[in-house]
Structures are given as C-alpha cells and as structure tokens.
Write a structure and sequence with these properties.
The protein folds into two domains: about 350 residues, no CATH class; about 90 residues, no CATH class. It is built from 20 helices and no strands. The two termini are about 30 Å apart.
Length: about 450
C-alpha cells in the first residue's frame, strides 16, 4: 500500500482530522522555534556581536541544519513514552481525540508562556501532554496507570531534571575558570552603548550561538519528529507500522535476527522469551525481501513482534555488556525496521523550527538577558553559558535523551550571574522556576481534560 492509497482509503472526516493534527504538530515546532531558540540569540544580540535580524536568520538556518542532520534516536524516546498500541487498539475516534488532545494541550501552554515572556521548556510541555492522554486513556480503559511506559518516562524525566542543574554548575565553574585564565575586566562588565566586544570574543559568541542553535535543532527537532510520528501512527498505522520504503528491509532484518539467535546460542544464552520472540520474527519474515510484502492486515502484528524482540534484547544487553558489543550492529538493523522517520517529516520539522526561530523571539530574549540577573549579560557570561549548553545538549543527543535548551541555557546564565557576583533577580527566577515546576502538571492536566471532553463528545 503506497502513501496515496493509504490517504485515499481514509474517510473524509478522518482525513480532515489528520491534516488538522499535522498542521498543529508542525505549528508546535514553529512555536518551539521562537519560544526556545530565543535563548540562543540572546547572547549575540545583547553583547552586540550581531544585530537582531542577522542573528535570528543565522540561528534559524542552523536550527534547520541541526534538525536535518541530528538523527532520529531522540524521536523514538518520545514515541515510546506512550505505548503506540494505545493508538491502534483503541477505536479510531478515541485515537483521533488522543492525538489532537496532546497536540492542542501542548501548543496552548507554549503560546501562553511565550506571551508573558517566560522561557519554559517545550520538552516538558510535550512530554506532559503525552503523559496526560496516556494516563487518562489508561484509567478509562480500566488499566490503572499501566498504560504508560514508566521506565522510559523515568529515563526522560531524569534527563530533564539533571540537565539544568548540570548547566548551572558547569557554567558557574566555567566562568570562574575563565576569570582566572583571561584577566580582561571588559569581558565581565555589562556591554556599554556604542562599544563592540573584542573581535576574538565576538567570534566565540557567534560560534556558540550557532552551536546552541544547531544543538537545539538536533534535539528538539527530533522531539517534533516523534510528535508527528505519533500522529501518523495513530491515523495510518498500516503505512507507518514499519519501514516499507526500503526494498531489502525484511531480508536484512530477518538475517540480523538469525545472526543474533546464533550468537545467543554460542554464548549459551537460553532465555526462552528472547529466543521465542526471535523465532516469531523469523517466521513472519520468511521468504520476504521488503516489508511491503507483509500483508497490510498483518503489519501491525509483525511490528509488535519486532518491537517485542527489541525490548527483550535491550533488557538482555543491559545485563550482559559483552553480548551488547557482540550483537550491536544486528540490533541496530532490527530496530531500524520499525524506527524510521520519513524524509518529508524531517524536512517539514526542520523548516518549521528554522522559520519559527526568525519570529517572535523578543519576549524571551528580554527576559533571559535583562531579568535573570541584576545587570545585563556580559561577554564572558554569554560565551561560557552557551558553550556549556552546546556540550550538554549534544551529549544528550549522543545518549538519545531529550533535554530542554531553555532550561539548560537559562540555568547556565543564572550560574554565570552567581559566579560573576552580578546578582540574581529573584522575582524573575521565582517566576521561571514556578513555570518550570507547573509546566508538567499543567500540560498533563490540559491534555487529559481535552481527552476526557473529546471522548465524551465522540
């Protein structure tokens, strides 16, 4: 079944809802662009390293580039927060409401906090919205709280909690180290009107601004991809259940499973769950070259078998590092059969994020640069905070973890303010902290309530 056939087979009303959901999902990334990436351009604008217009265009382009080249592993850390079977096993109407509720709940909170100039985390908002519909659906279905992948939730929330603390501490230490090594007082005083930063620090600030923008695109772009995949899986599971676009994927996946099974047997591993799951995948893909050859009415079941094997192998690898090294390449091949992002989604998210960066940034920029500390951002603070942010976010991308650019950079700036004895505006920091604290419960509540109301209406 090709894409046009899959789309044409949808009822007209469902097609309208699909287009509406995709518009909101791409809109979420557009809002994410001017909401979160404002943090990246703050330093170059307030240190007069670049005028505002070139700064946001530069940042927007690097966001676009980061989203295109950042990979897709973080996207599936978002997708796997909500067991996608919930979208398939539910009746079609409830699945539509579930997707629309998490999208609308997320974008409402993001726009609201942007309007009042609060740099809150789009990552928290998105994750809270997913948790909200997952919790409500599980309760409605009589499963208690079992309808969520709590192991993945804990992993993601740990990354979101630790990253800003790391940003604050490392940025404070980094600025103190810079003061010891570079004894130029101009770097640690607020920029004066008509004065430009020294050319070398200006170059660093422009470079780190680009680095934060690229890192943001790499990490947050993948979150948007994960969000859109939830939409696509919910509306067209037959087409997006597995990678039917690679003409050799069924054969390469089956061969990888056979290799893994042989290596398990050679290692004297007799785990019945893993071996049984492997046998089911081998049998399902027997004689097939492309996953397109799997009958449409069997694709979701085969996807569940492959996913079950991926989960079982993942648990086995966690307790057996030598085995993990031995089967790593085959494991990646197996995962790639069900974890793929269409190129049009990658390009759409990259464009949304890049274009969003070029508008609406001023509210957040003013808060970050003028209202966190009692004095304006200095050259040294900007360079250190952004360097730490780049390192933290790219490290998270490498570890396949979603983190918040807003939280890491804002915490980093606060850390440099403390280390520079610039003073901290506790009223602003209190508002930001309260927004961070309430983002998760409010987005959970918003999406959950929308899902309840929508479920009643259908």
């Amino acid at each position: 079944m090709d894409l046009l056939t899959a789309i044409s087979s949808l009822p007209f009303v469902t097609l309208l809802f699909l287009l509406f959901a995709l518009a909101i999902a791409f809109g979420f990334e557009f809002v994410n662009g001017f909401h979160d990436t404002a943090n990246a351009v703050t330093t170059v604008i307030y240190t007069k390293s670049l005028p505002a217009t070139p700064a946001v265009l530069y940042s927007g382009f690097l966001n676009f580039l980061g989203a295109i080249t950042g990979g897709t592993a973080v996207a599936f850390s978002i997708v796997n927060l909500l067991p996608v079977d919930l979208l398939i096993d539910n009746n079609n109407g409830r699945a539509l409401v579930m997707v629309l509720s998490l999208l609308i709940g997320g974008i409402v909170w993001n726009l609201g906090t942007w309007f009042i100039g609060l740099p809150v985390s789009s990552s928290h908002t998105l994750i809270g919205s997913i948790l909200g519909v997952g919790i409500v659906n599980s309760l409605i279905s009589g499963n208690g709280l079992a309808g969520l992948n709590w192991g993945q939730v804990i992993t993601v929330m740990t990354a979101l909690l630790v990253s800003p603390l790391l940003g604050f501490a490392l940025a404070a230490i980094g600025l103190l180290a810079m003061k010891l090594l570079v004894r130029d007082e101009k770097l640690y005083d607020s920029p004066k009107d008509g004065h430009l930063p020294p050319s070398w620090i200006r170059g660093i600030l422009i470079l780190t601004c680009g680095g934060v923008s690229f890192a943001h695109g790499s990490n947050d772009g993948q979150k948007g991809m994960g969000l859109i995949l939830l939409v696509l899986i919910g509306f067209m599971p037959v087409y997006y259940a597995m990678d039917i676009h690679d003409n050799q994927k069924a054969k390469t996946c089956r061969d990888a499973v056979v290799d893994v099974k042989e290596k398990l047997e050679k290692s004297k591993i007799t785990d019945a769950t893993v071996l049984g799951q492997a046998d089911r995948v081998i049998e399902s893909l027997e004689g097939k070259i492309s996953l397109r050859e799997v009958p449409a009415d069997k694709r979701w079941e085969v996807r569940k078998e492959i996913y079950g094997l991926v989960v079982a192998l993942g648990k086995l690898q966690d307790t057996n590092p030598p085995l993990k090294k031995n089967i790593n390449s085959q494991f990646s091949v197996i995962k790639s059969s069900i974890e793929f992002v269409p190129m049009w989604v990658v390009m759409g998210v990259a464009l949304s994020l890049g274009l969003g960066t070029t508008v609406g940034y001023k509210r957040i920029v003013i808060t970050v640069a003028e209202k966190i500390g009692k004095s304006h951002l200095t050259y040294g603070q900007g360079a250190v905070a952004e360097t730490i942010t780049v390192a933290t976010i790219l490290g998270a991308v490498y570890l396949h973890l979603p983190v918040s650019t807003t939280q890491v950079l804002s915490s980093g700036i606060a850390g440099t303010m403390a280390a520079n004895n610039s003073g901290v505006q506790f009223d602003t920091c209190r508002k930001i902290l309260l927004a961070w604290v309430f983002t998760l419960p409010i987005s959970i509540t918003l999406s959950g309530l929308l899902f309840i109301v929508g479920s009643k209406l259908i």
